[in-house]
Every structure is written in C-alpha cells, then in structure tokens.
Amino acid sequence: MTVGMNNAASPLWAKPGAAAASAETADAMAFMSRDDVILDRELFPFDIRATRAHVNGLASIGLIERGDADRIGGALSELDERFASGAFVLDERFEDGHTAIESFLVEKLGETGKRVHLGRSRNDQVAVALRLYMMDVLDRARSSCLAIGRAALGVARAHEFDPMPGYTHLQRAVPSTVGLWMGSFAEGFADCAALCALTRSWIDASPLGTAAGYGVNLPLARESVADELGFARLQVNPMAAQSSRGRLEHQVVATLWQAMQEVRRLAWDYSLFSAEEFGFVTLGAGFVTGSSIMPIKKNPDMAELLRASCAVVGGAMGEIQQAMSLPSGYHRDLQITKPAFVRAAKVSLEAMAHIPRLIGTATLHTERMASAMDPAMFATDHAVKLAGEGVPFRDAYVRAAEAIAGMRPADCDAETSVRARVSPGGCGALMLDAIEARLTV
Q1: pLDDT digits (tens, 9 = 90+) for 252-303
Q2: How many domains does the chain have?
Q3: pLDDT in tens, 351-378
Q4: Closest Cα to residue 282, out of 354, 350, 366, 353?
Q5: Whether residue 133 sits in one domain with residue 81
Q6: Mean pLDDT of 209-225
Q7: Same structural domain for residues 69 and 189?
Q8: Annotated catalytic residue within 169, 292, 325, 423
C-alpha cells in the first residue's frame, strides 16, 4: 500500500487474481476510473473527516487501540492540512481519494494505517463523503441565496415607489415599481434559501456503517460516529443507503436549479433592460466587456454567462436522472452521476457568488423607467375604478378600453396606481417587510 511521491498506489481491491492495470488493460482501467481521482478533490476533506470519525468509532468498541486511533487522527489532520496547502496532491498516482487516504496512513504509520478500513466499504465511504459534501453545498447555496435576497431587498427599499412599466409577454401591461421588481428577486431567493434548508434536512442521515449495502457483522458505533460527523440521524436500512446514491444527488441538483432559475431570470432582466431600447439599467464595471471591432460596445457578458449557467445545472440534472434506472444494490453506473453532480454544484456556487455585487453595482435609470410609462397602462386601473362604482366588470373592461385615448394626466399617476393595491402582496413597505423577515435568519 505504500506510495512514494513518484509511485502509483495499489488499488484497495488489489489481490491475487485481481491485479491492477497492466500495459494491455490500462485503457480499460482509465475508462472505468473516469477521472474519479480528480473529482475526489472536491470530496477529499469530507472523506478524511469521515475516516477520522470511523476510526474513533472502532476505538470506542475496542477494535482499534485508543493510542493507535489517536495516531491515525493525527496523521489524518496532517493529510488534511497538506491537501489544503497544496503540499499533497490528489493525482493519477491514486485510483481515488479513498486509496490516497489509506496509502498516506500506511506510509506514515505502517501496519496501523491498514486498520482503518475495518467495518466499511468504499460504497459507504463514498456515500458518506458525498452526503457531507452535499450538505456543505446546500449550506453555502443557502447563504448565497440569503445574500442575494438581501442585496435585492436593499435596492427595492431604496426605490420602493419609483415607477417602471410592468410587462407581460414583453408588452407594457400595468404600472409597476422598482420596489416590486427587485422585491420579486428578494422573495424568490428567500424561497430558494428555504428549499436548500428543506433538502438539507431531507438528506441529513448518515450512511456510514452500512458497508456495501448489507450491513456489517460488527457492533459498529454508528450513532456516535454520526453524531461526530454532525448528522441528525442514521440511514438505517443498508440497501436503502445504496439505493439513495444518485437519487439524492438529483434532488440536490434540482434544488440548485431552482436557485439558478432565479439567477437566470435576474440575468435575463438585466440583459434586456440594459439594451439601448430600454436603457433602464447599466451594469457595473467588471461585469461588461467590449467588442474587438466595435468601439462603442458594452456587452452584458456576465449577465449572459449567468443566464447560460442554469443550463449547465439543468443538463446535470438530466444526466443524473438518466442513470437512475437500476435494480437494488450498488452498480458502477452510479459513478456517472459524480461528474454531473460536482459540475452542477461548482457552477451554481460560483455563479451565485457574483450576484450580490452585480446587484449592488448596477445603476438604475429611474427617469428612463418613468418616461416609459404611457396612458394605456392605466386602463386596468380605470376598469377597476368603474367596477368599484357599480359597473359590472366586463362592461367596465370595455368602457376602459374605449376611454384610453381620452385619459388625462391626472388619471395616469403611477404612485397613486400602485399605492391603491392594498391587498396582501401589493406594492410597498408591508410587502418588503414580509420578505425581509424571511431573509433575516
């Protein structure tokens, strides 16, 4: 198992009759590994954490000497620090992250390092590392959603009743406000933050100790190990633990897609409203680029790339879903889900990290928004007013449509229009206060 800096580590499954890759089989082995060791760079710190907890569990039931467990824990801490600093590189010398951990321990501790795999399989080892990684991703995604929501809420507060057209089908519809527009993103990201928390709670169960899906003939201290890792509960059925692979990844990616759909909507609006034909928004420095041939161009590249990032997450969701037609038990097909999941997680977190600053540095041209209002947009207000005076609404609807040409400026005050929307969900501070309460956690 020992591996020097320039030598390859033997696979964990290597034994007489099941040799590692030869020159003739190297291509097949490379296909089967499918960049596992590279992807495991995302999971490696979580795999180290789970290994430490597992060793402590073995020590608690007398299967590893306490002193040996402490030495293993010290070596794992060293590996964690060296990996974080770049001194230890997870590369093609190792079949995967699990092999790297065990190889490092054997190199540092000799025979003691060979004890860490007792009572577990690579199946539950990767399952618990993935579960911890998923929970971390959801925590970070939730924090980003809250930060984006607060940034949008700040703009909504600052421009609470500044008028702008409300659109349906990209056609002018009724008077709206910047507060209503940006408040929609504040509430949308509050919803996404809540969904991240719900999904995290749903997956918050430790699969460690279920081994390859059929339990372990040892009295493993699964509860204390789960507590050490911060899990709320155990996943108790070992076959269910194996069957959750891929399914949980899909749910996490679906949750991220909801947040990225809000990102896409915001990016679409910024891209559209920054066009000269609208002129409502100018994106901040660092979020636009120029043209190599047209000197006047300020292209909303960041908005466009954020808009496209949602497609990456949607593609990953479909990729995982298509791999999930499997019978009970572990199948190597599930390895296909890891690249898609890691890609979706990284793209989502990287994209959302830019949004608060994108919102905070954008310039809103409120005078241009106000000038885009026209009398026809007040026809609905006029119809409702007539209906309130006793005219049946369908008749009021027709009379309002006929009256558009003769509407006076006094009938076309945007602030009066939006302040009249007093039912819950209307414009103004009450709506924004309700959203703020959901973002203050």
Answers
A1: 999 999 999 999 999 999 999 999 999 999 999 899 998 888 888 889 999 9
A2: 3
A3: 999 999 999 999 999 999 999 998 889 9
A4: 366
A5: no
A6: 95
A7: no
A8: 169
Please compute the mean of the pLDDT values over residues 25-46 and round it to a whole number. Answer: 73
- First-to-last CA distance in the chain? 48
pLDDT recorded at residue 92? 86
Question: Is residue 225 in some structural domain?
Answer: no
Range of the domain at 109: 26-118
pLDDT tier for residue 420 given thresholds of 50, 70 and 90: confident
Question: Dihedral through CA 251, CA 223, CA 143, CA 183, nearest 10?
Answer: 60
Same domain, 285 and 158: yes
Please check whether residues 261 and 354 belong to one and the same domain. yes
Give dist(CA 337, CA 323) in Å, integer: 7
Q: Has residue 420 been placed in a domain?
A: no
Last residue of one domain, picked from the residues 118, 140, 168: 118
Active-site annotation holds for 85:
no
Residue 163 in any domain: the answer is yes
Q: Are strands 163-168 and 171-177 parallel, antiparallel or unpaired?
A: antiparallel
CA distances to 40, 68, 82, 225 from 112, rounded to whole Å, are 24, 7, 20, 20
Q: Is 291 noted as a catalytic residue in this protein?
A: yes
98, 159, 244, 291: which is the annotated catalytic residue? Answer: 291
Residue 426 lies in a domain: no
